[in-house]
Every structure is written in structure tokens, then in C-alpha cells.
Specification:
The complex is a heterodimer of chains A (64) and B (262).
Chain A lengths: L5 H6 L4 H44 L5
Chain B lengths: L11 H6 L9 H33 L13 H28 L2 H33 L7 H22 L3 H15 L2 H11 L19 H33 L4 H4 L7
Helix pairs in contact in B: 2-8, 3-4, 3-6, 3-8, 4-5, 4-6, 4-8, 5-6, 5-7
The chains are: A mainly alpha (64), B mainly alpha (262).
Amino acid sequence: MNWSSWNDFIAMGGYARYVWGSVGVVLACLAGEWIALGQRHRAILGQVRLARQAESEDAQGGPP
Amino acid sequence: MTVTSLNPATAGPARVTGIGWWRFASPQAFYPLGGKLVPALFAVAMVLLALGLAIGLLVAPTDHQQGEAYRIIFVHVPAAWMAMVIYLAMAFWGAVGLVLNTRLSFMAMQALAPTGALFAFLCLWTGALWGKPTWGAWWVWDARLTSVLILLFLYISFIALQSAIDDPRRADRAGAVLALVGVINVPVIFFSVQWWNTLHQGSSIGLRGAPTMAPTMLLGMLVSALGLWAYAIAAVLRRLRCIVLERERHADWVAQLPELRS
């Protein structure tokens, strides 16, 4: 362990905004990309499901 | 569309050449496989990234020249590596697509671009935050920095080109050509610190010779890099699954997916 206290760790020897600004933005971007991909997947599944419902309703000659 | 090749009993010729990897070249075979790989790879990525950052930020010693500012290395260098590796992978799948005309290769090429652009941006962002305290400038027009900026622009033009062409087959081919032309930039980035007199420091580790950094620092950097590697594969496969569905939405196999039966 390099640090003697929690405050030392947060202060990063006076470079806190540079170090945490780097690590924080990297983690935030990865999280954002991951969440956006989950939404994109749900959206396309939803569209395919809707299209299938419309098709089966057409085949039955209208909504049941 | 032959589904028979998915049946192991009829996959005779593929058996002879090995495991029959070719069958995963079809989108409908990839889709469920990707669904299994994505969560597993993501879990591995999170464990490795947490471990790498813990080693780098908590355990690794203070640098005697740069103080604590050097700790940006644990995200900067892995992000830079991924930005270059993803570009190479993008050009590779583009070339495979052009030669073999396989649908999934072009889709893989397309799936790689946004994650590669993200890593190129993160490389520049963390580099700026490292440059300010150590060089006194957020940005300099140094060969290394400029060539990484060009990499980001190549990713952005690839994405723009793909979305500007309506016909997917033409978009794929144009994108593959752009990716292949731009691949020349990757060795330029890699060797820029040797070829030109740059403000950016040279590599701390290389294929030849011992690394010029403390073992704990090196360990933290390599474990973080493996974590980002696993994350990148997971994210690209997750996007590839979306692209497969978007492009093949009218195919029979999509209609028969278990997640759509409700």
C-alpha cells in the first residue's frame, strides 16, 4: 500500500483533478457505452416483436 | 440460407479441417454464441480492470520525477493500445469482407468503430490531463499526439461514411477501403516517438529489452490493459449482436429467436 491515509489517496499528491479526471471519465465513458448498447439491443428486439405482431394480425385479418 | 450446416451430423467437411469455426461466420450462429460470451467477458473485464486500477492507484509506488500525476498511465496507455488494436481489427475484418464477401466480417468491422473511436478519444483526454501538469500544456502539435488525433478522425470518418451510404453493401465496401487506407496511420503512431523528436516520452516497455519501470507499475498497467481488452471485446460483440438483428430483422431465424417468443 502506497498511502498512509484515505485523504492522501484522494489528494493524489496535489494532482487529484488530473488523475481522477482521467480515471473518472474513462469509467464513465465505458459505463455510458455499455448502457447505450443495452438500450439499442432492447430497442431492436422491441421493433422486431412489433413487426411480428403486426404480421400475425394481418394474417388473421385484423386484431383478435 | 442453409441451416443444415449447423447440424453437427452434416458438418463433415468442416470436421476434417478442425473444429468447424466457419459455421460461426454466419450471423444466426454467431448471435446466440455472442449472447453467451458477452456477459462472461464483461465480468472478466470488470474484475481485471478493478484489479489493475487497484494495483496502479493503491499499491504502485510514487514516481520520483512526476509524483502522483504519472498514475494517469494506468488508463492512458491501455486506452491508447486499444485504440490502435481496434483499428487494426477493423481493417482486418474489412479486408476479410472484401476478399471473402462474408456478411459477418463487415458487420464486425462496423461494430468495432465506435468503441475504437471512444478509446482514441479517451487516449487524447487522459493525455491532455497528463500533459498539463507535466509539460504545462493540454495539447502540443507533436507527432505522437497529432497521429492519434488523425486516428480519431479516421474512426469518425469511417462512421460518417457508413451512415451516409444507404445501401449496406456499398457502405460496407467503402468503409472497408477507408479502414484499409487508414491502417498506415497505426505504425506511424507506434513509431512516431522514434522517428521524430517528440515531446511525448518514448515507450516504457517494448518487445526488446527490459521495461524501464517498476514491476508493480508494469503489473498494474498490464492488468488494466487486459481489463480494457476484455471490455472492448465484450462491447464490440454486444454491438455486433445489435447490428446482426438490425440487418437481418426480416430473416426467418430472427423470428424464431427464443427471446422473441412471448
